[in-house]
Amino acid sequence: MAAITVTPAVPAPASATAAPPSLSLPLPLLHSTVLGWYDAHARDLPWRTPEASPWAVMVSEFMLQQTPVKRVLPAYEAWLERWPTPADLAADAPGEAVRMWGRLGYPRRALRLHGAAVAITEQHGGLVPDDHATLLSLPGVGEYTAAAVASFAFRQRHVVLDTNVRRVFARAVTGVEYPAQATTAAERRTAAALLPDDAGTAATWAVGVMELGALVCTARGPECGGCPLFSHCAWQRAGCPPYEGPARRGQTYEGTDRQVRGKLLAVLRDAHGEVGQARLDAVWPDAVQRARALDGLVADGLVEPVEQGVYRLPQ
What we know:
51% of the residues lie in helices and 5% in strands. It is mainly α. The strands form 2 sheets. It has a 3-stranded antiparallel beta sheet. The longest helix has 17 residues, at 199-215.
């Protein structure tokens, strides 16, 4: 079996004198190593079961964007209990989607998921489409979500690149600690070169690499000793050089407009009706920041003004 040497997806530091390292491993062995690890260590998650519908997979993908699994699980179960099909959600008001989204964060995802449910119901007979291009045409569905749903729900062969996958490939193939801040064309070429030819195997490979990044090859404190690719990892062979790219800024929350938006939205979610300005004013002392946050919620379609000083979730 021939070994594959993949062109690095991220340039080596300018100070490097030797050619950047790469993962040299026969593809069948690479695949069987990762797939074997996944078979033994994969988490038992409801959206991965054979019984999970394409709609359930889509709901999980919307919820899992920028939100940890442990926070998603209860919201996911409650969501599907209330809206087991796209038509069920489409028949309800978008504000109810925002209400059920609760404290998952980034609530615009709830509106986008509602919009996708409406489109699926009206244009696709209530069935999540199995075609990647059609998925991509749905409201709120980007390249990653379309590829993930096509792969995980319909067992198709697609490059699925999330943060975890990108980090695994950056370390194992390229020899750097972190990938570039934005996905590059070179990363997509690398991922495509590593993708198994068989569609079903490719779908499992996609989730297997993702799980490896989530559980072992983590952003902080990677457990390299338990990694199935430890002896083949370019980053390990290079001596685990520290990250030398642009500063990686952590997300802040306390005191931000995002925190104020969350507090305002919490009042509206709990009210189950219209809310007066005085109740919203009570959640944050800075009137200017509070007004800016409320204006942002209205602009995003998450809140509707009913009349002067009266608001509600979108109907």
